[in-house]
Amino acid sequence: MGGGGQQTDRITGTNGRFGTYTWEEVQKHTKSGDQWIVVERKVYNVSQWVKRHPGGLRIIGHYAGEDATEAFTAFHPDLQLVRKYMKPLLIGELEASEPSQDCQKNAALVEDFRALREHLEAEGCFKNQPLFFLLHLGHILLLEAIALMLVWSSTSWSTRIGNLFWAVSASDVFVFVRVCPQGASAGWWNHRHFQHHAKPNVFKKDPDVNMLNAFVVGKVQPVEYGVKKIKHLPYNHQHKYFFFVGPPLLIPVYFQFQIFHNMILHGLWVDLAWCISYYVRYFLCYTQFYGVFWAVILFNFVRFMESHWFVWVTQMSHIPMNIDYEKHQDWLSMQLVATCNIEQSPFNDWFSGHLNFQIEHHLFPTMPRHNYWRAAPHVRALCDKYGVKYQEKTLYGAFADIIRSLEKSGELWLDAYLNK
């Protein structure tokens, strides 16, 4: 501990002392059960709090020993409220001689990004427009109504068309409210997705780059696997078997198993009840039209279609980008090397649910998606100022880059496997 280790009646840490610390001291506390973070130059001991953190214990652990100010600001809409809960965890602050940023981050870039966020807040970019969501909900309900009307009409062709409309509307519900109402756990999804936003494309911290040994991604992992002679699958052909493993199986198989395993393992009984209620409502509705067998077929077909949409739309902005171990970059640089945008158009906006603005989505995860286009020019200007690459692609080019990047990673693996 640095100087100033006197008792304080206002705030106490776990050892009852309030002091000043250097970055070197803070960075010693990164292990499970002993984790400190820095927010706005204040040092917090979150060792025990991580277990009760609403966003999950891992997301705080990913910032142990680091400056978490940008992540703290990005994820908490009501900062004043959260600061009140953090007071008992405060054990001190950085010494006056210490920089506000750790790991040699560009202080000017960090300050300019914070100023940009404040500007966007003042412009109202973080405020919802109820009309946008009402119109979106209206078109979902319209598709649902058309589907039910066509199903009730009972002719074979209209029933088939009804199935198609139902599949489309179900996919739109998925985009609109994420996965919660369709038999998934909101707690599981938030815990997983928060980690992805906190440390995108960072091995051991972003669950989305955990490929379960089915794929090797980026430039680092393929060489590591090759050198270690790891060959769970012929990775030099992964760009081919991706079509049979990734898009069709992620939601119907992997997510489905993981969702229920997570809810039971962590005792998320409320989530489990909601998930079960979804299946009950689904089968009560559709078995009367098709019977049990065809209702199951329809259910899995919709999941199959959802899975294709989900994989292509989410991974077009991430798999082709930089994937590596922790580099302790500032928030802006970390997000920009891990993601890219897709050109704006009415179709791209609708098809992706505005996730074509993936950069803005990552920089400002609490910003309503209908405002991303307003933030984009400001973010691009800031990137230009500091030489941070702001990448934008066509939709087709982004899809093709998924396959090209998998092929390149597979070649790196094969070269390392055969020659090292």
From TrEMBL:
SUPFAM superfamilies membership: Cytochrome b5-like heme/steroid binding domain (SSF55856)
Record keywords: Electron transport, Fatty acid biosynthesis, Fatty acid metabolism, Lipid biosynthesis, Lipid metabolism, Membrane, Oxidoreductase, Transmembrane, Transmembrane helix, Transport
Q: Does the keyword Transcription apply?
A: no
Report the residue ranges that make up the Cytochrome b5 heme-binding domain in this protein. Answer: 21-95
Query: What pathway does the UniProt record associate with this protein?
Result: Lipid metabolism; polyunsaturated fatty acid biosynthesis
Q: Name one GO biological process term.
A: unsaturated fatty acid biosynthetic process
Question: Which Pfam families does the protein's record reference?
Answer: Cyt-b5 (PF00173), FA_desaturase (PF00487)
Q: How does it sit in the membrane?
A: Multi-pass membrane protein
Q: Give the protein's recorded name.
A: Fatty acid desaturase 2
Source organism of this protein record: Sinocyclocheilus anshuiensis
